[in-house]
Design a protein that fits this description.
By secondary structure, the protein is an alpha/beta fold. Helix content is 42%, strand content 19%. A seven-stranded mixed beta sheet has the order 3-2-1-4-6-5-7. Helix 1 links the parallel strand 1 and strand 2. The longest helix has 18 residues. It is globular and about 45 Å long.
Amino acid sequence: MTVAVVTPVYRNAATLAALSRRVAGALAGRQWTLRFVVDASPDDSLAVAHGLAATDRRLAVTALPRNMGQNRALLAGLAASDAGTDAWVCLDADLQDPPEAVPALLDRLAAGDAGVVFAGRRGSYESRARLLTGTLHRAAMARLTGLPPDAGAFLAMDRPSRDRLLALDPPGIVAGVGAAGIPCVSIPVARASRPVGRSAWAPAARLNQSARSLLWAYRAR
């Protein structure tokens, strides 16, 4: 199985080197690529990403000309990584999504009964308020779509699922999986606290994205 890992990058210059090392360690023995989708980040993330890619041909960079948000960055990365790829993995660049869990997602995907395998969110990785609002959002999305109630954007998918998502062009990757009726499962994965920096999601932007995704999922039923 040839694997393309896609990560949106925004204010993540400090974690990209560690992320690439950990992905390489987790996927040792497999054929893989890691694509940094730099979402017009105002820090030096783009320079760091290009520097890392210059030293390892398995690393690639997509630079978005303007800030488009996590979902558009993920879709751009999924579209860019194509030839010879069997499976795609989406994960955050801030190291809250542990790369060491990726092999478990891929092994479950290889069972063949699901097109998407979610890393079911576990752990106290954010403030209580953000954990509560995130749990409420996922519960509402699960009720609308039948998705696992712990589904987040850390996931693995096969080629048919990736192609369906790109054709659907959803406002959120998770909502798109549910709306497309893609068979999916989740396995529990403990997320880590952010080692440096803070979330790029302001409360208002987070609420807006939640509302847009839920409304879109409701209309897509």
